[in-house]
Fold this sequence. Notes:
81 residues; 5 strands; two-stranded antiparallel sheet; three-stranded antiparallel beta sheet; alpha+beta
Amino acid sequence: xxxxIGMTADATVFRAVITKTYxxxxxxxxxxxxxxxxxxxxxxxxxTNHLAEVDEETGEKTGASRASGYVERGNVTWTKA
Length: 81
């Protein structure tokens, strides 16, 4: 997905690093870059909530999730491709 992030030549960008656990294995995905730490944290929160485990008897979330993650920060150096 194309995204427009207005940034200077020495900008700091952020990405969400998300570990998802499924019955067939565990996978790490990366989402971003984002122009703010808050936007990257929102993606971690989304996946943590989206893959939250639900008690089959009550239908309530158990507080456990099949996803976890953190945010990484990086500096961008732009060069001609």
